[in-house]
Amino acid sequence: MTFANVTHVAVGVVLNDQDQVLVSQRHPGSHKGGLWEFPGGKKESHETIEMALQREFREELGITPVTFYPFTKILHHYPEKSVLLDVWVISEFNGIAEGKEGQAIDWRDLSSLNPADFPEANAAIIKRIRLPRDVAITPNLDSIEKVVALFELYAKQNVQLVQFRQTQLDSDEYSNWYGKVKTIAQSLQMKLMANQSIDTFPSELADGFHANSQTLMRLENRPVTSSKLFSASCHNLGELAHAQKVDADFVTLSPVNPSEKYRAGAELGWDQFSKLAAQVSLPVYALGGVGSEHMELARSSGAFGIAGITAYLNPRL
Fold this sequence. Notes:
8-stranded parallel β-barrel; about 325 residues; alpha/beta; 2 domains; about 25% helix; 4-stranded mixed sheet; TIM Barrel; Nucleoside Triphosphate Pyrophosphohydrolase
């Protein structure tokens, strides 16, 4: 199938300060009529995605997107047609949303979104838009007891997604620890991603797999099924583009600010972070010298959230 046979659709995911998303109901006589959707419409040949979003949202909802950035691209084949969903997050708009074409609209909590209420192509959007804003990365620890204390600290900060990174362990030790830590994470309702060699990571237990930048650039395809999360560490446009090519669910981009891990002067700064993040359609997390106090700045710079080690640590641990 050629690109000419695919309907290119501009889709806007409008999020408010309460992490609610704007959805609208498709008209009964339309394709997948009666189901809910993230608003948008077909991109005309002369339009950019930004132009299409602004036109569609003015016509359908009476609002004008002001701050928006690429989030993900989804190619989906229905029996009757194929669509390329070019999905952007809209974090600021002018006007008050209403169904200008008689369609029902609603603001829904992200946790309440049910893929069965949406066209099939929207399932991947829901999976990614429900990613938490915080991703904690574990420091190296010397005992399971300290891991337990750390996860209790994460729970107090409402962390829901943890990348389990323990570079001091060999593959057998890591798998043994991971099994024990997964039980802890489950009891606290956290998802636990493995950060280990792709050949030896505990795939049956893991909620997902995180690839460092070296592993990422060796990958030719997505290393885990769509039922699991896949993320990667990126530091430049080449790595970001490759992560998108191998269908990562999200990436970290670092270092944003000065950090002990990186040499002096290696930091991107928020302007460069924003420019890089805007060139890929992936949820991008800011990493490196960032903390909860940077969340608003990160999101205004095109980040979906923040990730880090020290950002979630208590100095006593």
